[in-house]
Structures are given as C-alpha cells and as structure tokens.
Amino acid sequence: MKILVGLSGGVDSTVAALLLKEQGHEIIGATMSLWDKNDPTPRSGQRTSCYSPDEIEDINLAEKIAKTLSIPFHVIDCSKGYKDNILNDFKTEYLNGRTPNPCIKCNPKIKFGLFPQLARESGIEFDKFATGHYARIEKGENGRYILKSGILPQKDQSYFLYRLSQDQLANTIMPLGGYTKEEIRKIAANYGLEVAQKPDSQDFYNGDYNELLGVEEVCGNIINTDGKILGKHNGIWNYTIGQRKGLGISAPEPLYVLELKKDTNEVVVGYADKTFRRGLIATDINWISTEQITDETKVLIKIRSTQRPFNGVLIPQNDGKIRVMFEDLQKSVAPGQSAVFYNNDILLGGGFIESAI
Q: How far apart are the first and last CA of the chain?
C-alpha cells in the first residue's frame, strides 16, 4: 500500500514509518504546521510541545528523518484549522471554568481529519494514514472497527483517541500498538537514528496559558465550601480542579481547588477529603466498538490519561448523556476533561465530563 505517515520529528512516528517501510509499503512522510505565524502574542512555548513558535526545528528534523529513510516529505499547513477548532475552543472552555484537553479534540478534527484531508487536496495520493500512537485498531465481530489500548499501560494512548470516527479508524494504521516504548527506542538505536533518545512531547503548549487566552485579569474571591472568603484570584482560568499549589492561602492543611464558578467568578477550595466524587455526568458521547449502550453496563473507566482504569457503571440517560457511577470514590473530577470507557483492553467510547456527582 501507499501510506502517508504523520512525522512529528520524534522517535515514535519515525519508527512507525520505518516499520511500515520494512513491511514493503510505499511510505510518504508529512508533518503538520500548526503555529499561527500571524499571531505575535505567545512567546514562551517550547519545542517539547505540539504548538510552539519553534516548530520549524521539529519540521526540519522530520525532513531530515525522511531523507534518512529515503521517503518523500511534505509540510501541510493546518494552522488556520487548528486555530479555529482547537485554540478557540481551548480559550472558550477555560474562560467558562472548564479544563479542556486540546489533544483529544485535535485528534479527530486536525491530526486524523484536516491533516490527511489537506494532504489529499494538495495532490498527495495514499491508501492509508499512519501515526506513531501506542494503540491498536482491529475489525470487530460486529463489523465495526474497534480501538484497543497499547500493550504497555504506562504508554497507552487510546484515551486520547476515543473521539475518532469509524471512517478514520478504517483508514488508519497504528503499527506501534504491540510494542513497548523501550522496544521502539531500541529499534531506532539499532538503525542509528538520532531521535532514538529524543524526549517525548509533554503538552500541547509549554508556555503560559494566559498568552493563548489573551484576556485581562478579572479579580474574584477564593471561598471555602461554606462561602467564607479566604483570598482573591485574578481569573478562574488560572486554576484547575484538584490544584493544590499556587493558591496563596495559609491553612492548617493543604487546600485544593474543588470548583470553578463562572457565574459568580469564584474559586471554591477545600481540604483533601472534599476532593473525592462518586460519579459524573458525561455528554457528547462517541461510541467506537458499539453504536451505543442503552442498558446499565459495568465498565472500566479512565478520567485522566495517566491513570489505570477503575471499575464503574454506565447508566444511559434519556437525553443521550451518560450517568457514570464509580465503584470507589475518585479524586478531582474535572468538567471539560474526558471520561473514557473500556471493556478490558477494548475502548468502548467516551464523552466530555459535564459535571461531577
């Protein structure tokens, strides 16, 4: 097959291209350009992030990798779509007191959507699109494409991919799902690739988020659960649910952010015992392995990408939302983040956290 591989300049996408080439496929390399060159505001983003003023260095490295692998290389400008769909949404979510995960929305809309679409429109012909994600795509018994977690829990990236469509899964290859990170680095080292020990990207933007938000300070109160004023803040978007450091308040025990109230411009804090929740309401559900779940169902759940799945129950609601009840209390359930549901290693689907219970 003729396969377009998204090259980031990192070891994972490099080895993905290498493995597919070794299998006899015709490989084409391409890199997304995301930085809005007309926006002079953000300055502190670093190369270890997806959105960075220094992205040209990673693009140059990706081109160098393509030359090493003797494959064609293209740069696809996705900056407008990224700004319209990801950066603007990021700003809206934060200003409304929610904590977004831009990577989760970027994957279906940009990385697996606009990126290959613009590549085709530019005249690049390919049969499949491939990435260096640690996840597995298979065809299920019901005819639907299913997404499975990577074999190493610590590096599994399926959580970030739960919003992919059936069409996107059908046209994507993820050759690293059956490997560990250590194995991938070893393959790169054996081929003498300079990216063998390159550090992983850490976030979508490593600078001050206020640079991206572009808003002036809006002072308000930091209160406890009884409504007592404990301090002041300069904008609720400077805080996230579960945050402990940087509150600037003296207390007998550490205080944590429990809630961000947009309507009253208040940050609610409390002690550790107040951070636990017994469930959540999830909305805008995307099902992968099944068209939908209509009955109460026991599942494994993740509300953060790095945590191990825990037991819970999905209770479908009449409005299309899902009531999720945890077997054990969970800490710091953040509206705007995602709850993703599994059956062992099969990703069933997921949705955005609307509220904690």
A: 49
CA pair distance 119, 346, nearest whole angstrom: 30
Length of the chain: 357
pLDDT of residue 215: 86
Side chain identity, residue 41: T
Span 149-176, average pLDDT? 94
Contact between 54 and 61 (Cβ < 8 Å): no
Tell me which H or E stretch contains 90. helix 88-95
Question: What value does the mean pLDDT take over residues 123-136?
Answer: 97
Average pLDDT value for residue range 166-189 = 96
Average pLDDT, the chain: 92
**In this structure, are residues 94 and 50 in contact, taking their beta carbons and an 8 Å threshold?**
no
Asked if the model's pLDDT at residue 48 lies above 70, the reply is: no
In this structure, what is the dihedral angle of CA atoms 169, 337, 282, 276, given to the nearest 10 degrees?
140
Mention every residue, 6+ apart, whose C-beta is less than 8 A from residue 238: 210
* Cβ–Cβ < 8 Å for 239, 221: no
CA angle 315, 316, 322 (to 5 degrees): 85
Q: How far is CA 131 from CA 30, 161, 176, 211, in A?
A: 11, 12, 8, 30
β-partners of residue 77 are 33
